[in-house]
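User: Please predict the structure of the protein below. I'd like the answer in structure-token form so I can feed it into my own downstream comparison script.

Assistant: Understood. Taking the following sequence of 211 residues as input:
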Amino acid sequence: MFTEPDHDCDLCPRLHQFCSSNALAHPDWHNGPVHAFGDLDAKLLIVGLAPGLKGANLTGRPFTGDYAGDLLYATLLESGFAEGNYAKHKDDGLNLIDCRITNAVRCVPPQNKPIGAETKTCNDFLAREIAAMKNLKAILSLGTLSHGAVLSALGLKKSAFKFGHEAAHQTGSGVVLFNSYHCSRYNTNTGRLTEQMFSDVFVKIRAFIDT
């Protein structure tokens, strides 16, 4: 049975210390491993990098409270993978439809950059999460780190599956791994990712899931 890490998880000492330091400075923030949002019986799993310092680390829900969440949830609502209103907090009443959102690394890292050992340690949670999703048809990795983490969780060689925006990879288990550039403000501000580019990925995912 899949279980999320405890709030006081200390498997990654650097991340645990960072969360503890943030808890002293901001005791009303979440400041711990951020659990996935959405049901395990969903057909789509979206995998991000890690909680944002003033986003999920504050609110306790993936992609909630920062720009990346603004774009992600607007796109999910547009593509029918969510319903309700997104109001940047976990009690806004937003519901996901056939969709679950998680992160490759569950705790916020300093400078938003987890190190390899932290990604590897947290990969066990991701692997068991994927295995528990019996209706899973598609995984969307947001960025190259997420892409690599998903491949590791599936026991696949990274060299055989090159990351590319809008790419779709057959994993051999019936689950298709889709790629998108991360919906961060940096990527949108530089033009690497536009709202239309992001929307196009979900159009492809919706078409695949509905077949």
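That's the full token string. The domain at 13-209 is CATH 3.40.470.10 (Uracil-DNA Glycosylase, subunit E).
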